[in-house]
Amino acid sequence: MPAALALFSLLLATALRAQQAGDPAEARAIFAELIGINSTEEHGSTTPAARAVAARFLAAGFPAADVAVVGPDSTHLNVVARFRGTGRQKPILLLAHLDVVEALPSDWSLDPFRLTEKDGYFYGRGTSDIKDMAAIWVATILRLKREGFVPDRDIIVALTAGEESGVANGVQWLLANRRDLIDAVYCVNGDAGDPLARDGKVYARTVQASEKVYMDLELTVHNPGGHSSLPVPDNAIYRLAAALGRLSAFAFPIRLNEITRAYFERTAPEETPAVAKDMRLAGANADPAALRRLAQVSPLYNALVRTTCVATRLEGGHANNALPQTAQAIVNCRMLPDDVGDSVVAAIRRVVADTAVTVSVITAPVPSPPSPLAPEVLGPVERITHEMWPGAIVVPNMETGASDGLYLRNAGMPVYGISAVPLDADDIRAHGRDERIRVAAFDQGVEYGYRLVRALGGGAP
Fold it and tell me: How many Å separate Cα 326 from the centre of its chain?
């Protein structure tokens, strides 16, 4: 074979392999653009990010009618794009949020609003929650369009505002005002159901089919106050502190449901022998002693088996030289799906055991039904997982946090939390300082997301 022909064949083969595996460069560029936009509620906006994504869809040839940048005001805009299919099946929705929690540059060792690649990691606010999946959904649809893929159904991408703060929540707004844009037979939510890895090796692929229920309580003590030079035993801050101390020593009863039982049974092989034994005992017959030991192993296992209520904010007093007239604390509860808000509040009041401490609900719980474990979704998930991460198990799970899937489930749309980017099980930094994910994990997520969307979309090039 002539040298020129051999070189051409090598280049062609390399290009074909790259096309088959997918080049993460475009997804990385979108990722960097989104991380570079401060989309916090306190000092930023989702609007520039929504417009940047819309510009990419329009530049790729999407009709203007299929790319909507909408929302309640100029600060909280969402972007929704529709990739048209043949209509043989009903549309599906790919969801992620554009807003992120606050990140103070003074707290970080690098700029939180710049994507930094360092020592095999991507750093930046939103790298794991959840601008990685926003970038992957966009890059996937752009790639499918370039390849000439025609799905059997419309594939909708919605990147929204207000998930982290609850202010002008995009999913709620779209359901109330433009449901036509996002109406689908089911949703794949990139903000839940993470693949889990240790030392870079994926051992479990979770699929979120249920989630705990969010509720905020306020504990308040009022007092006449007075001059700080004349202290009295009845101090608002002391009474509140004593009540919080009693709360810190309290734990709700342990209880399993169908999803958490399956979670423990399926993940047992990946744990140490002692923990695996307790997982099997818990999954098989809800052994109380085994469940108590699991709850002590990690915060995750504790959160999976019981309702939790924890103090998250504290405020008291009005002057350095005055006795406090008011002391307040916020207690955040994450309830098991079958718990009742009134019962949880009653339990907190019993634990506080002080009529001077008022317990009031400031964010009411909104339960949502679990999503059925549909073979149409789980089949491709299991196949792609086994192709990309041999040996990894697929595990339905209950999200210990909260997601926008809540609003869609209550609106009658099943939701499956399926992130594509593996997270280090022992190094999850969402909402924290120096948030990061592995570069290799993001690149794997790009390919996983592409294969999943193509499989769920059906159709052919």
Answer: 35
Residue 245 lies in a domain: no
* 3-state SS, residue 30: helix
User: How far is 9 from 17, CA to CA, in rounded Å?
Assistant: 12
Over residues 382-396, mean pLDDT: 95
Q: Strand, helix or coil at 323?
A: strand
CATH number of the domain within which 428 lies: 3.40.630.10
pLDDT tens for residues 25-63? 999 999 999 999 999 999 999 999 999 999 999 999 999
Query: What's the chain's length in residues?
Result: 461
pLDDT above 90 coverage of the chain, percent: 81
Packing angle of the helix pair 439-457, 25-35 (nearest 10 deg): 110
Closest C-alpha to 166, from 101, 230, 103, 113: 101
Phi/psi of residue 341, nearest 5 degrees: -55, -45
- Check residue 224 and give its pLDDT: 95
Determine how many CB atoms are found less than 10 A away from the CB of residue 137: 27
pLDDT tens digits along 259-281:
888 888 888 887 889 999 999 99
Best CA proximity match to 76, nearest among 45, 49, 52: 45
Q: Which helix (H) or strand (E) segment is 302 a member of?
A: helix 299-305
Residue type (1 letter), 301 = Y
According to DSSP, residue 254 is labeled P
215: closest CA among 366, 412, 58? 366
Residue 280's alpha-carbon distances to 1, 266, 299, 399, in angstroms, are 61, 9, 19, 20
Is 118 part of a structural domain of the chain? yes
Contact yes or no for 68/51 (Cβ under 8 A): no
97 within a domain of the structure (yes/no): yes
Residue 244 falls inside a structural domain: no
Q: What is the DSSP string of 128-189?
A: TTTHHHHHHHHHHHHHHHHTT-B-SS-EEEEEES-TTT-TT-HHHHHHHH-HHHH--SEEEE
Burial string for 426-448 (b: 16+ CB within 10 Å, else e) reads eebbbeeebbbbbbebbbbbbbb
The answer to whether 344 and 336 have CB atoms below 8 angstroms apart is no
Look up the domain containing 138 and give its range. 14-192+403-457
- Domain count across the chain: 1
324's tokens: 């406090």
Cα–Cα dist 64/57, whole Å? 9
Q: Kindly state the helix (H) or strand (E) to which residue 53 belongs, with its residue range.
A: helix 47-59
- Percentage of residues in the chain having pLDDT higher than 70: 95
| Predicted pLDDT at 283 | 82
